[in-house]
Amino acid sequence: MSLRLPPAGAGATGNSAAANSAAANSAAANGAFGMARAAGSASRARALRKTAGWAPLALALVLALMYIPSLYRMFTGPWGTEEQAHGPIILGIALWLIYRNWNAMLAASEGAPGSWLGWPALLLGCGLYFLGRSQDIALFEIGSLLANLAGLLLLARGGAALRVQWFALFFMLFMLPLPGSLVDMLTLPMKTAVSYLVDKLLYWAGYPISRTGVILQIGQYQLLVADACAGLHTLFTLEALGLLYLNVVRHQSLARNVLLAILIVPISFASNVIRVLVLTLVTYHLGDAAGQGFLHGFAGMVLFVSALVLIIAADSLLRVGVAGPGIPLFRRAAGAPAPRAPASAAFGAPRATLAPALLMACAALAAVLIKPQKLLADTAPKIVLETSVPAAFGRWRLDPQVLAVVPSGVKQEAISQIYSQTLSRTYVNPQGQRVMLAIAYGSNQTRQLRAHRQEVCYVAQGFQIDALRSGQLRVGGRNVPVTRMVASNGPRIEPVTYWFTMGSSVVRSYLDRQLVELKYALSDYIPDGYLFRVSTIGADAQAAFALQAAFVDDLMQALDPAVRARLLGAGAQ
């Protein structure tokens, strides 16, 4: 048997063919894998584009569900009043500014990654919305929109986007409804100053005018300088007008912009003086109907026109005094405008929209779940003030010959909405000393239905307030936190002591009210409240406060324990 070996050439040729066949098979396999991978990448790209299309729409839907009800309540509530009618205008201008800068924002942030700083801003916004919506704190509820918008811009487009849109978000600050206590504190001196200047100017011009607090008496007409004419909201509106003017003209000098922004405050005050001056003259020459009718609204136009004229005049003077390019405060967008792109395709990656949308949806749902629905007043026996407060007790007897004066800065219709019951009496003791008692009860102490601070009500009636301070009233061995003041109107000097009770707690500050409201909201209840006030006539304030303390102590001992507990509150020590 012999072993036959193939020739060397033939063996090499056979191996090469096998190798070529294997290479061909490998190339075919690689090609098929590459085609499959490309198909997978294309499929993922299509899915990503599809997600990128509806993710911002989901975010827009969540924003609409959150803030359309809030804005509706503002339109039918605070923004529907003369004092805060500027709110919708500010909102509309801010949205227009965002729209105007949208393409510039997309161009400035093209390819920029999102910023993690958006999450703290978004968490702050959702927290503010939750508290504001559930507790009827309009400042938090509407203010959360600014934080949420800033957070979304940072997450989707980074800091460059926020830098382009910063003025629009800042401009929204002027539409926020401020706490009533802050407005009252700042509005009172402003109205007094405006009334004082109008009185002096018209008296210098020879008009028969006099002033008592914020009440102007000209001829046979008596005019009350209201918040809408010379209040903090008007100042906010005019300040917003001035800043919008700065944003439109876009001066390149930082010093010029800053000086003009500062000058807007005295310009706003001067515009308020002009408005009240015009209304006073219209009333004096054309009658009360003209002053309170169409010409009253026309005076509002005078306010804004005069403010705009003064702003332009101040700007012209600053152009002479502050020259040179300086440092720009508002930067002009350079180059041609970026091509328009739909927000659904260009706003941001899906992960920058879906997670924030989910967070905001949770905040909105939680606010709905925790929002109180039941009145605390329905859980306790109803107290009728007229029968629960005795006409005689201790040394005190009802004096039917003297009617207590109940100053109030709101109309009677508004009082009936705020208070379910009111009681006003005057008591006299054997020595002839008289104490005026006023008690008001409201079953719903939320937002616009809260009791009013008495110093504000007195000033609205022409009183001047002095020696306003907090104190403690000793009643039946307990300390009740009270507010004391001395109100004067010409020869009438009236020392006053009052306090508020919400639920089972005596409250004195805005923060106290919010904390009590939140406490009851966690139990699904809306608290009720009592306003208790005593006052006397006399110049000796210390003697008056001592007499009031003795009167309150005698009254509380004569009341039924349940009524006494409701008036004093369990929080008194």
Nutshell version of this structure?
The chain is α+β, with helices and mostly antiparallel strands and 573 residues long.
Mind explaining what this structure looks like?
- The protein has 573 residues and is of the alpha+beta class.
- It contains 20 helices and 14 strands.
- It has helices spanning 8-76, 86-100, 102-108, 118-135, 138-157, 159-171, 180-204, 227-230, 232-249, 254-286, 288-292, 294-321, 343-346, 354-370, 385-388, 412-418, 454-460, 510-521, 541-558, 561-568; strands spanning 209-212, 215-218, 221-224, 374-375, 392-393, 396-398, 421-428, 434-442, 464-475, 478-489, 492-502, 505-507, 525-526, 529-535.
- The strands form three sheets. Strands 5, 6, 7, 8, 9, 10, 11, 12 and 14 form a nine-stranded antiparallel sheet that branches. Strands 1-2-3 form a three-stranded antiparallel sheet. A two-stranded parallel ribbon has the order 4-13.
- A hairpin with a 5-residue loop joins β7 and β8 (434-442).
- The termini are far apart.
How are the elements arranged and paired?
Blueprint: H1 8-76, H2 86-100, H3 102-108, H4 118-135, H5 138-157, H6 159-171, H7 180-204, E1 209-212, E2 215-218, E3 221-224, H8 227-230, H9 232-249, H10 254-286, H11 288-292, H12 294-321, H13 343-346, H14 354-370, E4 374-375, H15 385-388, E5 392-393, E6 396-398, H16 412-418, E7 421-428, E8 434-442, H17 454-460, E9 464-475, E10 478-489, E11 492-502, E12 505-507, H18 510-521, E13 525-526, E14 529-535, H19 541-558, H20 561-568
Parallel strand pairs: 4-13
Antiparallel strand pairs: 1-2, 2-3, 5-6, 6-7, 7-8, 8-14, 9-10, 10-11, 11-12, 11-14
Helix pairs in contact: 1-5, 1-14, 2-6, 3-6, 4-5, 4-14, 5-6, 7-10, 9-10, 9-12, 10-12
